[in-house]
Amino acid sequence: MTMTANSPRLDYMQISPDLFKKYVAFGMAGKLDESLALLVDIRASQLNGCAFCLDMHVKQAKLHGERELRLHHLVIWRESHLFTPKERMALAWTEALTKIEGEGVSDELYAAAREHFNEIELSELTFRVVAINGWNRLNVAFRSPPGSKDRMFGLDKAGLN
Questions:
Q1: Is pLDDT at 3 greater than 60 in this prediction?
Q2: Which residues, other chains included, contact 36 with Cβ-Cβ below 8 Å and sequence gap of 6+?
Q3: Cβ count near 44 (within 10 Å)
């Protein structure tokens, strides 16, 4: 079978349903604010070039009531006035953990994060970043088509198809 660069490879959700369900449970176990969690998911998905996850989380954010301009501004969050200091810190933390460079997360970034998040919140934020990066890798590896699971996840209600 010849595949094009954009052809889906396999449906890991169907092939490994037990692992899929456990990973879903892992990803949903935290108590991070839903709006903040979606911003984190979208930003990591942008950085990782995961079309499936980006499509999914933008639709979830719309269903959750997120303003469209904030979604458009996520790629320029440093220059945008639309994000709170806590959201900006979460986005900086997300980027540092998604694109781990050199010596990893600096002491300065950790200290700044602790100014906005208590220990539990920072731990849960970090688990969220870990989870979305895993989802991104699964969907990039297997070329999951954007929107292909909208009905399954109730995202067809977002009206963005």
A1: no
A2: 86, 87, 90, 125
A3: 27
